[in-house]
Amino acid sequence: MDSLETQLRALVLSSLDGDKPAYRQLLGELTHYLRIYFSRRLAPTHAAHVEDLIQETLLAVHTRRLTYDPDRPFTAWLHAIAHYKLVDHLRRHSIRATVPLDDDFADGSQPGSTMAAHDLDRVLATLPERTSTLIRKVKVEGSSVSEAASAHGMTEGAAKIAIHRGLKALMARFAGDRR
């Protein structure tokens, strides 16, 4: 690894001084290095994205090359960029579990709505009473956040936070793995 660091560091320093052949060689070496880096970190289902990640990382290296500190290891700087590109890729391509909340839980107009209302009652019962009531008022009954907040003597911001945290807790508790 030390010889690779020395080689890449020499190439990047030469390229920063305007040596175009050194820059081309650096990009070629980085392409090979990043292909191995990303191939080892991506699941086989994402292997088709390796080349895209290489290109994104090379573009980031190109646009940020002036921020490289020559007193520090080049590969550490490169790994930081590659790591963030990988994290961004995984975030973009992940499937997040969602739980749909229908507007007609308890209106009784559809078959099974009684069971849905019962299920909703059981789910909301797992939350603190005030949070449960806020979610029911705003998300099920259609009240405004302002109305629900004033009914509980809260600020609108505090009500929004309580609703958000309650829904997040429900998601964590009941969503499961939906992949």
From TrEMBL:
The keyword Transcription regulation applies. Keywords: DNA-binding, Sigma factor, Transcription, Transcription regulation. Residues 119-170 form the RNA polymerase sigma factor 70 region 4 type domain. SUPFAM superfamilies: Sigma2 domain of RNA polymerase sigma factors (SSF88946), Sigma3 and sigma4 domains of RNA polymerase sigma factors (SSF88659). Residues 29-94 form the RNA polymerase sigma-70 region domain. It comes from the Bacteria. It holds the Pfam family Sigma70_r4_2. The keyword Thylakoid does not apply. Belongs to the sigma-70 factor family. ECF subfamily. This is Sigma-70 family RNA polymerase sigma factor.
